[in-house]
Amino acid sequence: RIKASGLKLQLCTNETQATRENFVRKLQALGFDVSVAEVTAPAPAACRLLRERGLRPHLLVHDDLVPEFAEIDKTNPNCVVLGDAAENFTYANLNEAFRLLIGMEKPVLISLGKGRYYKETDGLKLDVGAYMKALEYACDVQAEVVGKPAKGFFESALAELGVPPEQAIMIGDDIVSDVGGAQQCGMRALQVRTGKYRPSDENHPEVRPDAYVNNLAEAVDIILQQL
Amino acid sequence: RIKASGLKLQLCTNETQATRENFVRKLQALGFDVSVAEVTAPAPAACRLLRERGLRPHLLVHDDLVPEFAEIDKTNPNCVVLGDAAENFTYANLNEAFRLLIGMEKPVLISLGKGRYYKETDGLKLDVGAYMKALEYACDVQAEVVGKPAKGFFESALAELGVPPEQAIMIGDDIVSDVGGAQQCGMRALQVRTGKYRPSDENHPEVRPDAYVNNLAEAVDIILQQL
């Protein structure tokens, strides 16, 4: 309905356990008409940053994410890119990433998100943010976080759309990463009362959405009514 | 020579990859006349703390350290004790410790030190402090650190000696953990110019030893001269 109305659409995800191709396939299977070009995700944002600064990464990421970095020179690394590596978060791999960082004149750590934990069918798992903190402490360095709520992440989504922030609206369930991040970038933002949403979000000390909607369909209704 | 002079002696170590028994065996093999009772180490200090507060730990520590906790009730854990677990720092073990912590009404994380990294023959390794930071971030909790430079650690060494801080002197190579920690406890402290010592320590912004000595033998000479 959004696309049929002539509005432009971009999906902003912090997914780092799959390529955009796989992510889009899942959405298509659920009936959504979405293409890879309509997805803004941390890995391609990181690739852009790596190219701009001539950085050659050592990757500590999920196996399924590696193809996103296919075009990037990874020889003789001068930075570490950290994603939610899941089973690849081994003692050996963490020590290897650490040794590379501590051996750099000025360690550069790029983290594909800073989530604390997430839930899977077999229970809670430590997310990339926890491992980021471990490496930050060991190397006395601050990671550069790519992904929501980083301002640059929303800016690249807007660049893809070719739309200024004041003409865009963000819809999300995460009060800080989605709503707060988009607003800091000059966009308006709706919070859906589904998914990660918690009633306590409505008393958040720092972030206040421009409006609440009960679900994604209601968000679409409201947006289309304004046209 | 210290013991022959009638002075009391206590060794304060942050070793958490071996029991005191094994630690003492190594020193004895090097010719030092030392007994287990003369060693203050993080694991027994943690055991004291666990007993005092009725805490039942889940252990994420090195296999060789586990015997130190033999007498401690570990059923139905209500805290996590973290040591330098080395090869035991697996993705599965870290998630397990995390799940236990996040499931507690008030998570209690006790860390046997907060070192950032150390060197082994096959290279640098992340130390317990890095994993402590990961769990602290994921659970939004502050770890209680046992071991140097914690004040309580020096206090238990003094209690073992039965000596007030102003009648004790610390000898160590680490400007912060050894010298700073002991001084904050009211003791005097010598820094030896061996081991971890770096010339830059002599310009440390916060800690100033009561004196420098070139090595342990010189420290003994000076102490015995004062008698």
From TrEMBL, chains A, B:
Keywords: Cytoplasm, Hydrolase, Magnesium, Metal-binding, Nucleus. Its main location: cytoplasm. It catalyses: diphosphate + H2O = 2 phosphate + H(+). It is found in: Cytoplasm; Nucleus. InterPro entries: HAD-like_sf, HAD-SF_hydro_IIA, HAD_sf, LHPP/HDHD2. Its EC number is 3.6.1.1. One of its GO terms (molecular function) is phosphatase activity. The keyword ATP-binding does not apply. Its cofactor is Mg(2+). One of its GO terms (cellular component) is nucleus. Pfam families: Hydrolase_6, Hydrolase_like. Phosphatase that hydrolyzes imidodiphosphate, 3-phosphohistidine and 6-phospholysine. Has broad substrate specificity and can also hydrolyze inorganic diphosphate, but with lower efficiency. NCBIfam families: HAD-SF-IIA-hyp3. Belongs to the HAD-like hydrolase superfamily. This is Phospholysine phosphohistidine inorganic pyrophosphate phosphatase. It comes from Dryoscopus gambensis.
